[in-house]
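The material for today's practical consists of a large collection of protein records. There is nothing in a record beyond a sequence line and a structure line. As an example, a complete record with its sequence and its structure tokens follows:
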Amino acid sequence: MNPKLVKAALAAGIVGAVLVFVMRAQQLSSPPPKPIATAPLLQALAAAKQPAAAAESVKQAAAQGEICHYAEVATRAALDADLHGLVPGILDTAPRDCPRWAIMMGERAEALARAGSTDEGERTAQSALKPKPANSYAELALARVAFDKNQMTACAEHAEKALKYGRGAEAERLLGRSTLARGLFKEAEAHYQNVLRANPSDVEAAFSAGVCNDKLGRYHQAREAFLQTLNIDPKHEEARKYLVVLTYKAGAKDEARHHLQKLAEILPKDSPTLLELEHLLSGSNAGADAGASAGAAGSPAKVK
């Protein structure tokens, strides 16, 4: 064998060994990554009655210690829990050279749109879509902007894209809102049921599913949905109003009286709504019309 080749091979081997030694030494001497503080977010998720899987995903991302990945995962968990106020602080911990920065920009756009910053949310969403067209968060942001502008067809179009790209229950929520607003009660109820499958404690979805079933003439499904709403939020006024009227019209007058008594515990004694519903249950014709209006006037739970 050529002596020069042998010397070259030996030299290369020595250099490679030195490089490996240096790299290992650097790894050993470099400080471990700072632990990521998750307690505030985890506490907020628990208070918002989010599924255990949401908190677990945050814990796992934090354990990996990679701030870009953690910021993206934690932001999604915050958005799903309607904790959009926490989003800027989470995203600001991540550097702008994160590999999925466009996705994180979409998350910021969604948070802005849901916080009512319509113009800024729309601009941020459009910026996020340029490098990453299939951006579920940016599309959801645009869906929310369209919803707030009462552009229900556009809302549904963007929400459909958000659902296609993986935004899940939050896209279903916007589809539910836009179809309900257009009187498409069967479609809206199906979307809200999908939200409930993701989170059985979602009060908006439970109540809105009840509204849809009531509009569709499905007494038993509507009653169960309103009872589910009250199981999540015992002080949900609109669900109680609906139940008073719904059960009265079905002939379940004792149950209607029960719901009126429960409603009286959370409304002022001089509330016009209580007076109208009392007239309804007493059999007054004038009160019946007013009482029915009180029940039917219920609107979907607070928009998130």
